Fold this protein.
Amino acid sequence: MRLGLFSPAWPGEDVPNGIVSAVANLKAGLEEVGHHAVVLAEGREPATDCIRLPPQAPASLGARILRRFRSPHAELKDMAAALARAASQAAAERAIDGFLVEETYGWGGLMQPHLAVPVVPVLHGPWFLHQTLQSTDATGDEDRRRIAIEGVALRAAAGVSAPSRDVLDQTVAYYQLPESLPRAVIPNAIVAGRGVEFDALTERERCTLLFVGRFDRHKGGDVMLEAFAHLVAGGADAYLTFVGPDRGCETPGRGRVSLAEALAALPGEARARIDVRGPLPREEVARLRRRHPIAVVASRYENLNYTLLETLAVGAAPICTAVGGPKQVLRDGETGLLVPPEDPQALAAACRALLDDPERVRRIGAAARREALSVFAPAAVARQTVSFVEECRDALARRRR
């Protein structure tokens, strides 16, 4: 089977994006088990394994005036038709049997009527779930339109998959998707490379926590900082490496707070123990993971995030909020520690428990790595994907008859 995989960027080594990681790892898995993948991504750089989608040109004055009298749905349908033309050409030239595309703006479902092969949206971040994680404000008109369009498109697709059961179940219930629509839980894949270099760690590295994620409300960077302040105030000899861009974190009654402002509000002793690295290329993040035995995920919600999967893959001990996919994946006390979301004191207590017990850290990290090598291996995920696309192809044929 030959699959077309839509990606926001390619090859994207310097793009901190979970969808790019998912596409890269699935592509590797497909090739490992004897199938093929072609990536479709916007851009101009040539690549033998990628079909470049034409970049969106700036709208002319006439087009901008016309846009004022058209619905956003009409524009999205036009864009979907353009993507479908590129996909149709790719299907003809490369003999592609089906496409996997993120659910954003409903591209996949809106493309399906234009294509003979199945288009399967993969639920990386449906907006009805993720919009509320970005802001404390109520959903606006643009958000409601996007949410509605994504729902219409999911109904039109050949099938729908999600990396976690929680996201799939919430999406099916929210949009009341029909029972006849094929659906599957297929995890994101992760390549397990070099593990944590426990025996080579310095004393300071052994007591340093790693946080990788945007500083925003979704990823819980504010909760991480507050938990770390509790940890240091309690006498722990701990340090924190904070990696990720500063998007600002919205908090009730305070508006949007920057990372610098949040750090300035911390006690001086805690602030002095935090190393802020900002956004980093993937290779640098991977190097840091091998030098940090404990990694923290403080998100208010997650699907099945690569921050967690990369932690499992290197054999670090994860401390993660008990939400969404992570709650279903981690076995508390065995492959990681689970804590309630938005609970800095519980997070601090979990960090202290591992910092005080290095052997437990090694034991949890080893179990986590075994999990990554089996459940999330690219070859295993690729086989599940191929099987589901075949199911969607048959269902689409029945629907069209």
The first helix runs from residue 18 to 32. The CA atoms of residues 231 and 349 lie 7 Å apart. The domain at 2-189+377-400 is CATH 3.40.50.2000 (Rossmann fold). The chain has two domains: 2-189+377-400, 198-374.
